[in-house]
Specification:
Elements (H helix, E strand, L loop, with lengths): L4 H22 L10 H5 L7 H12 L2 H14 L6 H26 L4 H9 L2 H32 L6 H11 L1
Helix pairs in contact: 4-7, 5-6, 6-7
């Protein structure tokens, strides 16, 4: 056994377990039709506050928290520490303010923030700008997640880029 075999076994086991749970969850409460955007985008609006809490937590505590923040603190020193309390404070605030957004979206049958903006303001241009901003803001976040996965794989001395390609393929599936 090499020095990183245990890390690779644990990571692979957890990856397979989480992937299996994801595939089982996809078939858990199958909708009658997938023709509505809220079925695949919002889980048919069937997530309660308990599952939503963990989904938002999974969004916050990712490669940003565990890779980018320590790297920032290493490079910038104590000024990089702002991200730690920021994340802790923002997490409950997200639930405080987004509860109203969720209520408005649910009552109006809206799926995206752009839908809510279009319905509330009546401006298609503003809704388009909100949608474009969301897409553009998400791109660096996705790139950060991939870089974080790649850094973890390199730290475990996993050769090549095939594990990253496999992770992306399973995510796409």
């Amino acid at each position: 056994m090499g020095p990183h075999t245990t890390e690779i076994i644990i990571s692979t086991t957890l990856f397979v377990l989480v992937s299996a749970v994801g595939f089982v969850a996809a078939r858990w409460r199958r909708p009658t039709t997938l023709l509505h955007l809220d079925e695949w985008g919002l889980g048919g609006r069937s997530f309660g506050p308990w599952i939503s809490w963990f989904l938002v937590g999974g969004d916050i505590y990712t490669a940003y928290t565990f890779v980018a923040v320590p790297a920032l603190m290493f490079g910038a020193g104590a000024t990089g520490f702002f991200a730690v309390p920021y994340t802790v404070v923002v997490y409950p605030l997200v639930f405080l303010f987004l509860t109203r957004l969720w209520t408005v979206a649910h009552e109006g049958g809206h799926v995206t923030p752009a839908d809510v903006v279009r319905a509330r303001s009546g401006s298609s241009t503003l809704a388009l700008l909100v949608a474009i901003t969301g897409i553009v803001a998400t791109m660096p976040y996705i790139a950060l997640q991939l870089v974080g996965i790649e850094a973890v794989l390199k730290a475990m001395h996993v050769p090549g880029s095939w594990p990253l390609i496999a992770a992306f393929g399973i995510l796409a599936a």
